[in-house]
Amino acid sequence: HSVGCEDEILIASLLRMKLILGSSSVARRKIMEEMGYEFTIMLTEAVTQTADIDEKGIRKEQPEELVMALAEAKANAIISKLQNLDKEGKGIEATLLIAADTAEAIIPRIQLGDTKEDAKAALLITCDQVVVYEGMVREKPSSKEEARRFIKDYSGRHAATVSSVLLTNLKTGLRKGHWDKVEIYFHEIPDEIVDKLIEEGTVLYVAGGLIIEHPLVLPYVKEVVGTTDSVMGLPKALTERLIKEVL
Hints:
By secondary structure, this protein is α/β, with parallel strands linked by helices. About 40% of the residues lie in helices and about 20% in strands. Keywords: Hydrolase.
């Protein structure tokens, strides 16, 4: 599609930035790639352990407040780790952020700065997600038994995902974040499907044991009120809006 002046300015800014995804989620990596971005991954789990952050110790009354608080804690932990790496002379070399679909035609016309300040500029994305079922917040299952109960609860009923996205401009300190909620309605899920999901194991590592894009689960998804990318942990439209707001 055609690129307007505002888009040119945005892409020029993005090409001077670098992007760090503070998540080990395979789904979030896939979504970022689908959006056309190149990025460096900094595993949140390793960072939070280093910073002695106890995610279970962060509790909020509302799920929206909880996912935002957890995204903030992850961002702070990663920033602290990055600062320590800089002091040790081991700074992370983040790849350039390029929106290939729109940038290809105009990159030759953009004169990019190559100053030390530009090289250090980076955007950090941190996220979190919980599932809400009958008013109760569900995080990752603590056992196979809990995962089994979670999935059996969804059978013939509905649940919601609440996902947070937090963008931090590491150059300016500007930080913007918000959350997105999606309702998911399910058909009856056969016990043999639940057994296969538990045996396969992926559901043990996602919020609420809920993973609608899984081939075993997808046939039993009746309706999604919202976007699938949000259920997978990274709402595209919200992420794009927040990127623009922190530039």
